[in-house]
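Two folds, back to back.
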Amino acid sequence: MKYDFDEIIPRKGTNCVKHDGLKANFGADDILPMWVADMDFRSPDFVMKAIRERCEHEVLGYAVPGKSYWETICDWMQRHYKINASREELHFIPGIVAGISFAIQALTQPGDSILILTPVYPPFVNLPQNSGRRLVCSPLKEKDDHFCIDFADLEKKAQRCKIMILSNPHNPIGTVWSKGELQMIADICQRNGMILISDEIHADLTLGNSPLPHTSFSTIGEAAKACSITFIAPSKTFNIAGLGSSVCYIPNEELRKRYFAYLETYEVALGNIFAYVGAEAAFKEGEEWLNQMKEYLQGNVDFLLSYCKEYLPRLRVMAPEASYLAWLDFSNYNMGHDEVKQTLIKQAKVALNDGRTFSPNPYDPLTECRFRLNIGCPRQTLEEALRRIASVFEPSEK
């Protein structure tokens, strides 16, 4: 079956954050939403079919994930991540951000230090601080329009940390970490007795331009397996984030018991009927849809780079190797960060994620004049967003 990713799906008025949250977050609702990390593509037909079929049974009571759900999850993990997980090593989680929050509460105490690589997905910044933990940041380094890890800095800062939270692949720039980099992280964790939380929500979206395949952290070796909690989800992969469905994998028995005990004690890891039904359908039937969607995303990456080269030559673009999030650097336009932000909103009328929210330091040089662009949309939407930006920042070009 050939899927149509050029189709425009009206979303305004459906209570979606991306469109209906514009006024609250940007002060205007007549701007083009290119921010929240969900896609504007139609959710897959096989997921919608499974949900509709479940609705034919008109009792929507409490639900549990069935045997076929877990078999499907294990099969997907084995085929896509080379993880041979047993049912006992897995637990349903109602969203990865929630899962990370639970891990912080279960495995650390107020005042403990938690390590992150910055710039990074904002909840990694917010969750430790909001829970009374001490946030420790190891800044990434820019090299050839990509980010890389400063391992000397990471080693030094890991010495006083209980947990490291890793975005693998990395959000906001879609970097696919190499096996060598992950091995070095695992070694640092082992030397310092540090737990590693690996958020692999973007794992299935590794694109054709990536020089590397995705490597799941736990597959690196025994040291990685011993210290890690891995989170996966169908939410970004199949555009079903609203179902609140994810899974954690913990191969280390002692660590697993500590975390699972917290989940059970506080009863915080329960799902709903559609979280189970939707995820199972996605992982069971989604291979062809995913392949076509990734091909389309790669086309969007190629279009973004070619358009900017011609019409936005001063804009630096960090194109994703995985997922649909591009990191844009407006620092060549001789504007301050706030001026760029207001120009995007008020003149270009485009909503992008503010780069400053990806670091606790509001003047972090890696986030100054940086903004995140969501390219998970029909190409004509992406073209319109870029046209609007070019008309304001490079009016002589376009």
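---
second:
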Amino acid sequence: MEIALLGTGGMLPLKNRFLTSCYIEHEGKAVLIDCGEGTQVAAAKAQIKISRINVILITHTHADHITGLPGLLLSISNTDRTEPLDIYAPKTALNMIDALLTIAGRLPFEVRVNTLDIKNETSQQLKTIDPMLELRSLPLKHTTVCLGYSLTLRHKRVFLPEKADELGVPLRERKTLHNGESITVDGREITPEMVTSDPRPPQKLTYVTDTLPIGQIAAFAESSDLFICEGMYGDPEKKKSMNEKGHMLMQDACSLAVKADVKELWLTHYSPAEPDPSVYKDKLRRIFPKVRISKDGRKTTL
């Protein structure tokens, strides 16, 4: 999975900071998480091809996470796209999304809106991206209904043709084995494990923003290769204010990363009143050494 954090700002865009949005691409198809004002401009600045977006995940209906949807869809319509595009969002967001789609007007592709449970965790395969890509959602605790998302990409075992040769597996049967099904050859059962490598570890990305640091997040993000989490402020004196507004501090995100045993943490969703979040870097690394004070356009490959 190729990851690009298009924007890192919360509340409102700044001249040097776009609103929080994350782009995840796998083999030419992409997922976008959140779509605030100007997301298509942030994507262009990061040299991202928005025509590859097949799925959009909306965390909640606050303006800095959703009002860029009409502009993004209209921009995608100018890329000659015709295949359907799926939106996943809390079921309480349906009316808002319908209104924004009305603003977008007639599009040359179908937009399919999928609503998610707001009280329980959900899990499903994003088959339009890859049958091996699992999407999970977690209800968070904000001033409105909000979901966190986790994407886990599992891999097929590597097929070992030399093992198949030793067992006399016909060429026409090898795809069946690689797809995980057993076959019978000369009265002998051949299982996939007999002609494939050991399991390969999956890649996992977890994205959480606009929430109090509830305990469920650590279990949800457990063992993530990359944990992207909000950090509105780095000043501990803002803790009471963040509790009242349903947000968390950078220190809260670092503590969650420790509990979840993630490999790397990227902070995002900074307050406009935090012009330089990097001033907290040293203090935050004492809590979680692998924290990154992200900036717009940060990229990596899992």
